[in-house]
Specification:
Layout (H helix, E strand, L loop, with lengths): L3 E4 L4 E5 L6 H4 L6 E6 L3 E3 L4 E6 L5 E5 L5 E5 L12 E3 L6 E2 L4 E5 L1 H7 L5 E6 L3 E5 L4 E3 L4 E7 L15 E7 L8 H11 L5 E6 L2 E4 L3 H6 L7 E7 L3 H13 L53 H23 L3 H10 L2 H12 L4 H7 L1
Length: 363
């Protein structure tokens, strides 16, 4: 069977399970999962299935997929102590629900005041599956893919070992409002990181390794384009499901009215602005000037130049990892920095006699 896409049960900031301020969850005692810091007070089904359990106080819901996979969504930490205050159940145990169907409502203000934490773990229960997160370190909208449940070999009686050479193909129509740019490309690479599969995206005569951010950007895929997906490997089904879900999600809605604004009484040299967000602001305008950094053209021994470039990448990666906890753009830069195609190309330039700096700039 293919992997099961887990959708965000509510708009939230998504992070690693270790950020939950509760040892049982943070140390994975209940199972693999992710942490969600809610930005709204309605919990929806993360996939289609049956409500296998719902806490009497309404603070936790467990959904069972037809494959047998079960996921627990626990709203906040120590919220059981509220005795049901702030929670309104909209379903019951045993009910069959569709993905995105409302299951309960909760009072964010009340929970923020009286619960130990709003951080809400989403946890995979039991054996037979593993959870691959694909949205950590960023804000997600309700219904956006946040993880894939990957079936392990033999989860059903007589199930065959997944074939390491399994190859499948599919088509996705790109729904991203701004096309396949750096952030969604970084999400695709992150979703594939834990999976044993090689994935290639094809658009007309162009193709790209889905693990390479720069290769994905070169596809120049726009909204409405039909993108072919080819996956090969033990986790080909899960990889296909994860990539298709990310391509077909409306991750970024175009900003209403995002057009150049007319400049009243324009003078020579005046620029028409593009609104980045609703509202207005006043402040001083500055010209952003950049300077071109000089790089040493002469190269030392190839090993010395390779060591230099790997050392620089490692140092910057450490810095970006710290920043990416709070900035999705930093996460995208980190994905570009560690892009295997870029590093391979840089080493080819070094082998041709260029210095590390010239090689990286060329790539």
């Amino acid at each position: 069977m293919t992997g099961i896409i887990v959708f965000a049960p509510f708009a939230a900031w998504c992070g690693p399970l270790g950020e939950v301020p509760d040892e049982a969850f943070a140390q994975g005692m209940l199972g693999e999962g992710i942490a969600l810091d809610p930005l709204e007070g309605t919990l929806r089904a993360p996939f289609a299935g049956d409500v296998s359990a719902i806490a009497g106080t309404g603070h936790a819901v467990t959904i069972r997929h037809e494959s047998g996979a079960e996921v627990l969504v626990h709203v906040g930490i120590d919220t059981i102590r509220l005795g049901g205050r702030g929670f309104t159940c909209l379903t019951r145990a045993g009910a069959h629900v569709a993905a995105g169907e409302e299951l309960l409502k909760f009072d964010l203000d009340l929970l923020a005041r009286e619960a130990r934490s709003l951080m809400s773990p989403l946890v995979l229960l039991g054996d037979g599956f593993r959870l691959a997160a694909c949205a950590q370190g960023r804000a997600v909208q309700s219904g956006e893919p946040v993880a894939t449940l990957i079936p392990l070999a033999g989860i059903r009686a007589g199930a065959a070992e997944p074939c390491a050479d399994r190859a499948i193909e599919g088509l996705a129509v790109l729904a991203l409002a701004n096309g396949l740019h750096a952030r969604p490309a970084a999400r695709i690479a992150a979703a594939l990181r834990p999976l044993d599969a090689e994935v290639e995206l094809r658009l007309e005569a162009r193709s790209a390794n889905a693990r390479s951010i720069t290769a994905l950007l070169k596809l120049d895929a726009r909204r409405g384009d039909g993108v072919r997906i080819a996956a090969r490997g033990r986790d080909a089904d899960a990889a296909m499901a994860a990539v298709r879900a990310l391509l077909e999600s409306e991750e970024e809605k175009a900003i209403e009215g995002n057009r150049p604004m007319p400049v009243p009484n324009a003078v020579a040299g005046a620029l028409a602005g593009v609104r980045a967000a609703p509202g207005g602001a006043l402040g001083a305008a500055f010209l952003l000037a950049t300077r071109d950094l000089e790089v040493p053209p002469s190269a030392g021994p190839a090993k010395q130049e390779r060591d230099a470039i790997h050392g620089a990448i490692a140092a910057l990666a450490t810095r970006l990892q710290q920043l990416s906890r709070e900035s999705e753009i930093a996460g995208a830069h980190l994905a570009i920095l560690t892009d295997p195609d870029m590093q391979r190309a840089a080493e080819e330039h070094i082998a041709a006699g260029e210095s590390a700096a010239v090689a990286w700039r060329a790539v």
